[in-house]
Amino acid sequence: MALRSIAMEKPVRVRVNGDCMAPLVCHGAEVDVGYPRRWYWPGDVVVLLSPGRGLLIHRIIGAYRRRGDWMFLTQGDAAERPDMAVDAKMILGRACGGGCAQILVAIPGRHRVWAFSRLIRFALTRARHALPGRP
User: Fold this and answer.
1) What's the burial of 77, exposed, middle or buried (CB within 10 Å: 0-12/13-18/19+)?
2) Which of 7, 31, 112, 130 could join 98 via S-S bond, C-beta 3.0 to 4.6 A?
């Protein structure tokens, strides 16, 4: 992905379409994204390429390994449930400035706990539906 290569050298500015991260990032805001990492923590806010949906800005809620690759679960702050997991290679980088709230750059501990709690809630919901006799 060409943008990912550019973001490795310096932040890239992208325009946000949608309100899944409102009120911290509003529709039309320009967010700086840069410096792709090998690892992201729950609570990190990233821009990723979602198949069929284009670039998204979402919060990482967790990660797991699948066939040797790291997959990240993400969710918009205003969304009810996580999106499909994305391969780490699809993440352009972490929000690092521009037209977003500063707490998306310097993430407070309470946002990390909140993100992790969303992962736990998602896992419990999945486990409950996997039990025999459950729809």
Assistant:
1) buried
2) 31
Q: What is the mean pLDDT of the chain?
A: 87
Whether 42 maps to a domain, the answer reads yes
Instruction: Find out whether the peptide bond into 23 is cis, omega within 30 degrees of 0.
Output: yes
Query: Is 0.90 surpassed by the pTM of this model?
Result: no
Q: How many CA atoms lie within 13 A of 37 on its CB side?
A: 13
Residue 99 sits in which domain range? 2-130
| Rounded Cα gap, residues 77 and 87, in angstroms | 20
The total number of structural domains in the chain stands at 1
Q: How many residues does the chain have?
A: 135
